[in-house]
Specification:
Structural class: alpha+beta
Order of helices and strands: HEEEHEEHEEHHEEEEHHHH
Largest sheet: 5 strands, antiparallel
Radius of gyration: 19 Å
CATH superfamily of the largest domain: Aminoglycoside phosphotransferase (APH), C-terminal lobe
Distance between the termini: 57 Å
Low-confidence stretches: none
Number of domains: 2
Helix content: 25-40%
CATH class of the largest domain: Alpha Beta
Mean pLDDT: 95
Shape: globular
CATH topology of the largest domain: Aminoglycoside 3'-phosphotransferase, Chain: A, domain 2
Strand order of the largest sheet: 1-2-3-5-4
């Protein structure tokens, strides 16, 4: 019996009959686990899975769909196994409704009780009551020491302009925090679940900007989510810049052009 099987037995009281690796992103190992009882679960390992478990619980508490947390132990997270399928009729409308439900949950300020990371990239979540301050300090300026030449001064110039671009006190909605299509798990239509969150409280438009970065939500999403606040088009580039910077740091110079293009569109 391997170490993972031993740990699953200790947490569930059930022996493992089979393991199969799953595609789980670039920063964690994810495994489909078959237990001798016939049950299935998903095992995820990584240094932040205990924090992820608390985020998934917050999503579920908000009434939004997320996989059920079965157990956690240090760097091991056990989740219910869900049946995955291609999006079908009503899947994207259900996603819009689910995201609106998530965003209806609110916090007292902007941020999250714990910091997070994407691999080596720190995600500071220190609470703030001013949204442009939060976005400047916790999502943009924190990257400046790690960026290739010429980008840090442009980021600093943009941050000085943020009070004129972003609302000072938007409703602090519960955000997924890393909402691209790969972090939506579609089941038999119209089922959908939010996975791999990086939660915090902030402007709901942040999740929408991320969801539109590498593609477009399917039919029915926009209507089901509901109308956006006037001026969202002007704010989207600011919100898209953060995941672009994260991708630049994680995956290299291939994302430099995207960062440059966003900064240029913001006149910096």
């Amino acid at each position: 019996m391997g170490r993972l099987e031993e740990r699953i037995l200790a947490l569930t009281g059930d022996r493992v009959s089979a393991l199969r690796p799953l595609s789980g992103g670039d920063l964690s190992d994810v495994t489909l686990v078959h237990l001798q009882s016939g049950a299935r679960l998903v095992a995820k390992t990584g240094p932040m899975v205990d924090r992820e478990a608390r985020m998934l619980a917050a999503i579920a508490d908000a009434g939004a769909p997320a996989p059920r947390v079965i157990a956690t132990d240090s760097d091991l997270l056990l989740l219910e196994a869900l049946d995955e399928a291609h999006p079908g009729a009503g899947s994207w409308a259900a996603t819009g409704e689910a995201l609106a439900t998530l965003h209806a949950a609110t916090g007292d300020n902007y941020g999250w009780p714990e910091d997070y990371t994407f691999g080596p990239v720190a995600i500071p979540n220190a609470a703030r009551t001013d949204w442009p301050d939060f976005w400047a300090a916790n999502r943009l300026l924190c990257h400046a020491p790690h960026l290739p030449g010429g980008l840090a001064p442009r980021i600093a110039d943009l941050c000085e302009k943020l009070p004129a671009i972003l609302p000072r006190t938007p409703r602090p909605a519960l955000l997924h925090g890393d909402l691209w299509s790969g972090n939506l798990l579609f089941g038999p239509a119209p089922r959908v679940w939010f996975i791999d969150p990086a939660c915090y409280y902030g402007d709901p438009e942040v999740d929408l900007a991320m969801l539109h970065l590498f593609g477009q939500p399917g039919a029915g999403f926009a209507k089901a989510y509901g109308p956006l606040t006037d001026g969202w088009e002007d704010r989207r580039a600011v919100y898209t810049l953060w995941p672009a910077l994260v991708h630049l740091r994680l995956f290299g110079s291939g994302y430099r052009a995207l960062v440059d293009r966003l900064l240029t569109s913001l006149d910096v």
